[in-house]
Fold this sequence. Notes:
Blueprint: H1 8-17, H2 21-35, H3 45-59, H4 63-80, H5 84-91, H6 93-103, H7 107-119, H8 139-164, H9 174-187, E1 189-190, E2 196-197, H10 198-212, H11 220-227, H12 243-259, E3 264-265, H13 274-284, H14 306-317, E4 321-324, E5 327-330, H15 338-345, H16 351-365, H17 370-384, H18 396-412, H19 427-441
Antiparallel strand pairs: 1-2, 3-5, 4-5
Helix pairs in contact: 1-2, 2-4, 3-5, 3-6, 3-7, 4-5, 4-6, 6-7, 8-9, 8-10, 12-14, 14-15, 14-18, 15-19, 16-17, 16-18, 16-19, 17-18
Amino acid sequence: MFDIPLDLDVxxxxxxxxxxxxxxxxxxxxxxxxxxxxxxxxxxQAALQQFVxxxxxxxxxxxxxxxxxxxxxxxxxxMVTGLSRYVAVCMDPFTNxxxxxxxxxxxxxxxxxxxxxxxxxGVVPVDVDGFAWGTVMGEREFEAYWQAAMTCEIADAASAxxxxxxxxxxxxxxxxxAAEATRITLWRPQPDRFEQSLLxxxxxxxxxxxxxxxxxxxxxxxxxxxxxxxxxxLSPVLAPRGVAGVMAPIRWLGSIVAAxxxxxxxxxxxxxxxxxxxxxxxxxxxxxxxxxYPAASVPQRSAQVPGLDALVALGGRSGFWxxxxxxxxxxxxxxxxxxxxxxxFIPKGxxxxxxxxxxxxxLLDGTWRxxxxxxxxxxAISEIGxxxxxxxxxxxxxxxxxxxxxxxxxxxxxxxxxxxxxxxxSNAGRSLARAALRSLATAPAEK
Length: 447
């Protein structure tokens, strides 16, 4: 990694001088596959492992004999250039086991073995608190990933030196070292890029992709709606004034779940039990869709207070609790925090995942009458064509139902101002909407 000649021709000339032309050809073809158009100093152990443990046996033609020859040629090349770490990867018995496993036809099992060993090696960038790598990467994210891989390798090599010296310092596990190296790479300011970090650039790249949505042609309305709030999503959103009010219902139900030990036993239909429903209605009143008056009966089930069902779903998406064997149980090592609520505010899939960001953007952009907001969102989703033929109007009832579901959860956490007739975000709600949209826009892309 540190002393490979920058020019491929210079590097392989050492092999040709020894009459190893076929090995030299193998090396050229392999390294061009691994580093592409980049210079050889961009080679790193993670990329080599990915090649010899997965890409070579799975994607290359020529059979097992040729694959073994390529690995031997690479090992010889790394011996010549003094890269003992890379020689060790090539000569590792696991490498030959992978070649044989793929050749035998058990590709799925071989890939799973590759992933386990690869991720445990300490030289592969990992997800860290506040950032996850996408399975689909943009140009800047791809660049950052391999920069992080090089930092991980340096940290791993340094740890080996420290271990040999019998000195214990810093993170000890391979995962901890990789996590620290990943954080350093992503958060470090870049002087040649106006002190922007790679994380800043990745988030901007993801935001741009999300605004565009990979669509062409008719999708003007969605772009116009989201473009109106794009500048509000450029920076991280801090917890707002009034955050205690936003978090109060989550923390109330979370405290009941935690105090119950094994969790709350749900009804056969998966709803909260009567005692919890009554306490929630008493505590949060209009927020949960319950307005007490002298002749009102006490609510008997959660369907009578729709905000509670919305609260259960929101807390599940935010990672605070889960349903297991008919019980609502707390997830370990989680606490109710504003960023998690923002990240879980928008559903993971379905019609609401398309509609709610557009509704929130309209609410952030100003006060919208319900009918106007529903009409413009209906136009935007019709243009996209995910829930019908492109350009064919979506059923108004579908849009209306989604709008009403959004208002239920927004009221539950105090995100809309309940003092005014028209739907309007509260101050805390504006922060929550911005944080929710930013979390969605900068989330890792998946296949």
